[in-house]
Amino acid sequence: MKRVFGVKKEKAPVPTVEEATERMNKRGDNVDEKIRKLDAELVKYREQIKRTRPGPAQEAVKARAMRILKQKKMYEGQRDQLYSQTFNLEQVSFATEGIKDAQQTMSAMKAANKELKGTMKTLKIDDIDKMQDEMMDLVDYSNEIQESLGRSYSVPDDIDEDELMGELAALEEDMGSEEVSDGVPAYLQPDKEFEHEPELNLPSAPSGQTAQHQAASAQGAVDEYGFPAAPRASVRT
Fold first, then answer.
1. Considering only CA atoms, which of 100, 97, 93, 96 is closest in space to residue 22?
2. DSSP letters along 62-97, please?
3. Is this structure's pTM higher than 0.85?
4. What is the distance between the alpha carbons of residues 110 and 176, in angstroms, rounded to a whole number?
5. Which of 44, 88, 203, 206 is most exposed, with the fewest beta carbons within 10 Å of its own?
6. How far apart are CA 217 and CA 95, in angstroms?
């Protein structure tokens, strides 16, 4: 049977765009390398033409240079074709990647839309409004509790502005009566109740220097600090 009908050949896998692009780039690199070698040969032939006198020898060098130049032009044409094909493959690859990205984006948006719909089913605006009203009632009730707990005991609440001004005026008069004409507060003045008891009348504090210091100052026998100078002992010879 195999001899009559033959064996079915397996098809080679179709190359991807990336594989085709990589192959084109390798071919383009080979062509560029050949063009560089031809350029180096052309430089040598140009130097030989400059050093050779006009004649058969120079014409032979020119013929070889012309052949190298034709090969270079051929390779440059091939390189331009490879560049065009590579550019087309890159454009196809870009379009393919864009379609894949769009498919992934659509899949992600569909999944997000489905999840959002499921979440929105569990949320109702009426339930949210009801919860907000309950929270406001709880906050108001909490404020009433705090206000009730913060009340003071045995504190009169019926004091008006006139009564307050009267209390302030009376307090000012009491404070003014504690001062004497010299501006000295009453609590610094001696108590008149104990003036008739001489044992309670203490001597007044010395104002300024003591008697000894005054005598020393009168005689001039004071030191640099204002204290009486110590007597100097006489030295006997």
1. 93
2. HHHHHHHHHHHHHHHHHHHHHHHHHHHHHHHHHHHH
3. no
4. 87
5. 203
6. 116
Say if residues 231 and 225 touch (Cβ distance below 8 Å). Answer: no
The whole-angstrom separation of Cα 213 and Cα 166 is 56
Give pLDDT tens digits for 106-142: 999 999 999 988 888 888 888 889 999 999 999 999 9
48 with 61: CB under 8 angstroms? yes
Q: Where are the domains of the chain?
A: 15-118
Q: Token pair 């020898």 is at which residue?
A: 57
Question: Could you give the CA distance from residue 144 to residue 150 in angstroms, rounded to a whole number?
Answer: 10
**CB contact set of 87 (below 8 Å; sequence gap of 6+):** none
101 touches 57 (CB < 8 A): no
Q: Which two tokens stand for residue 193?
A: 């109740």
Tokens of 81: 């074709």
Using one digit for the tens of pLDDT, what is the confidence trace for 163-211?
Answer: 777 777 777 777 666 555 455 555 555 555 555 555 555 555 555 455 5
Structure tokens at 54: 């006009």
- Within 123-184, where are the H helices? 125-149, 161-177
Structure tokens at 131: 């919860």
